[in-house]
Design brief:
The protein is α/β, with parallel strands linked by helices. The longest helix has 14 residues. Helix 2 packs parallel to helix 3. It is globular.
Length: 126
């Protein structure tokens, strides 16, 4: 079960990491995601993070705090974070709130994976 959770964080392309959030986010799962991200993020490179929130539910306050801590600890390795949620307005609001608190320099929210990837491609050009 632990490895199945860790496998939800993978390389999507060369410098793009895909993180597929769990249907029911938990502090334990965020810790596993954080461990896996630290393994994938090489210290001499910069990355894009592509976050799939299409099947996730709303995170509790303690889980949101963990996500902020995780994001803050890796933010220097990130060029841009692109999140896609399909049409989930509540998740969009929560994600924007969490990313603002984490102090990310560059992030975007999208309905589809294709839109999120386009934002990553645009961020890599600028």
């Amino acid at each position: 079960e632990i490895e199945a959770i860790r496998q939800r964080v993978t390389y999507y392309q060369d410098n793009i990491i895909l993180m597929r959030e769990m249907p029911v986010p938990s502090e334990f799962q965020v810790d596993l995601f954080h461990q896996k991200l630290k393994e994938l993020l090489l210290p001499d490179r910069k990355y894009f993070l592509l976050v799939d929130l299409t099947t996730t539910g709303r995170a509790s306050g303690t889980v949101r705090k963990k996500i902020v801590e995780m994001t803050n600890s890796i933010r220097k390795s990130l060029i841009h974070v692109a999140i896609f949620t399909e049409k989930n307005t509540l998740i969009n609001i929560t994600a924007r709130f969490v990313l603002n608190i984490a102090g990310l320099d560059s992030f975007s929210l999208h309905r589809t994976r294709e839109q999120a990837i386009k934002a990553i491609n645009n961020a890599s050009v600028s």
